[in-house]
Amino acid sequence: MSQSASAESGITLYRLQACPFCERVVRKLHEYDLDYSSRFVEPMHSDRNVVKRISGKRTVPAIVDENTGVTMSESANIVEYLENTYGDGGARANGGEEQADDEEGGA
C-alpha cells in the first residue's frame, strides 16, 4: 500500500516537498505498508496555519492518525509512534487488551 488520495487511509501526513524529516516518516510508512494521504503545506513557516490548527505547531512533518485518534509532529516522535503502533515488534493499540479478554473468555 502507499500514498493515497482517499480519505479511507486514516493517516494524513502534512509535509514539505524534499524535506528530509518528512521523507524519514514517508520511508517508515512505506516500510509498514501503510496507506496514507499527503498534504503538502506552505514552505513559509509563518504561513502553515493548517498545521498549526491540527498539531499546535507550525513544524512538519505532522500526522493525524484517524485509526487511533493520535495527532503529532516531529519526525522522531512520529517514527517511534509508527514503530510502536504498526511495527512488528511494537505493541499494537489494543493488542494486549484483546489477548487478555480472550484468555478470560476461554477459562
Structure description:
The chain has 107 residues and is an alpha+beta fold. The protein contains four helices and four strands, in the order E-H-E-H-E-E-H-H. Strands 2-1-3-4 form a four-stranded mixed sheet, sandwiched between helices. Strand 3 and strand 4 (70-73) form a beta hairpin. Helix 1 (20-31) packs parallel to helix 3 (75-86). Mean pLDDT is 82; it is low at 91-107.
Features:
globular, four-stranded mixed β-sheet, disordered C terminus, alpha+beta, 4 helices, 40% helix, 107 residues
Query: Level of helix content?
Result: 40-55%
Mean pLDDT: 82
Q: Main beta sheet, described?
A: 4 strands, mixed
- What string gives the helices and strands in order? EHEHEEHH
- Quickly give the structural class: alpha+beta
| Separation, N- and C-terminal Cα atoms | 39 Å
- Rg, nearest Å: 16 Å
- Globally, the shape reads globular
Strand order of the largest sheet: 2-1-3-4
* Uncertain residue ranges: 91-107
**DSSP summary: helix tally:** 4
Number of strands: 4
Tell me the strand percentage band: 15-25%
